[in-house]
Amino acid sequence: MTMVVGLTGGIGSGKTTVANLFADYGIDIIDADIIAREVVEPDSKGLKAIELKLGADILLTDGQLNRSKLRELIFSQPQLKSWLDDLLHPLIRQRMLAQIEDSQSAYCLLVIPLMVENNLQSLANRLLVVDVEESVQIERTLQRDNVSEQQVRNILAAQASRTERNAAADDIISNNGDSSALPEKVAQLHHHYLELSQHTQ
């Protein structure tokens, strides 16, 4: 069984940058966000169930899910979010486990933004947290996503606090500065994980 390193961090922390650095070493990356999009692709079980519940106007003209419309509906009907989570989380989990099973690298990286919030660290042998100060998260997200500061603060409020995330972590990469220090930090952890993976085979 491949050793699984869980990777998480709050919005704007630099998870993708860190994951890409591990991928450069040939490490398999299993990304929950990508899988979450796959399970609602046209003709998928997930999308068919959503269409059945919410009607055909939840689809765009090309048959894709109308994400912004779904977001609005979820925002105004909290019970709908629970229904959607109950539908999609098992599908996402099933696909993540299948990809872990298929992984051929020395260890694999399981990237889940809300890993601590959804208590999914049990899927991983170790938990790596990309940690940043809140002010840095806000600044980066404003630059990247073209949203209001209030929206970013709302997202932060819905996520685990830095303290909660860091308390759950086995390893922490601090990413407050510029990202030029990241390759060295990832290189050290990569060698550490290679050593650990030999003991978990």
From TrEMBL:
<dbReference type="GO" id="GO:0005524">
    <property type="term" value="F:ATP binding"/>
</dbReference>
<comment type="pathway">
    <text>Cofactor biosynthesis; coenzyme A biosynthesis; CoA from (R)-pantothenate: step 5/5.</text>
</comment>
<dbReference type="InterPro" id="IPR027417">
    <property type="entry name" value="P-loop_NTPase"/>
</dbReference>
<dbReference type="GO" id="GO:0005737">
    <property type="term" value="C:cytoplasm"/>
</dbReference>
<comment type="function">
    <text>Catalyzes the phosphorylation of the 3'-hydroxyl group of dephosphocoenzyme A to form coenzyme A.</text>
</comment>
<dbReference type="InterPro" id="IPR001977">
    <property type="entry name" value="Depp_CoAkinase"/>
</dbReference>
<comment type="similarity">
    <text>Belongs to the CoaE family.</text>
</comment>
<keyword id="KW-0067">ATP-binding</keyword>
<keyword id="KW-0418">Kinase</keyword>
<dbReference type="GO" id="GO:0015937">
    <property type="term" value="P:coenzyme A biosynthetic process"/>
</dbReference>
<feature type="binding site">
    <location>
        <begin position="12"/>
        <end position="17"/>
    </location>
    <ligand>
        <name>ATP</name>
    </ligand>
</feature>
<protein>
    <recommendedName>
        <fullName>Dephospho-CoA kinase</fullName>
        <ecNumber>2.7.1.24</ecNumber>
    </recommendedName>
</protein>
<keyword id="KW-0963">Cytoplasm</keyword>
<keyword id="KW-0173">Coenzyme A biosynthesis</keyword>
<dbReference type="Pfam" id="PF01121">
    <property type="entry name" value="CoaE"/>
</dbReference>
<keyword id="KW-0808">Transferase</keyword>
<dbReference type="GO" id="GO:0004140">
    <property type="term" value="F:dephospho-CoA kinase activity"/>
</dbReference>
<keyword id="KW-0547">Nucleotide-binding</keyword>
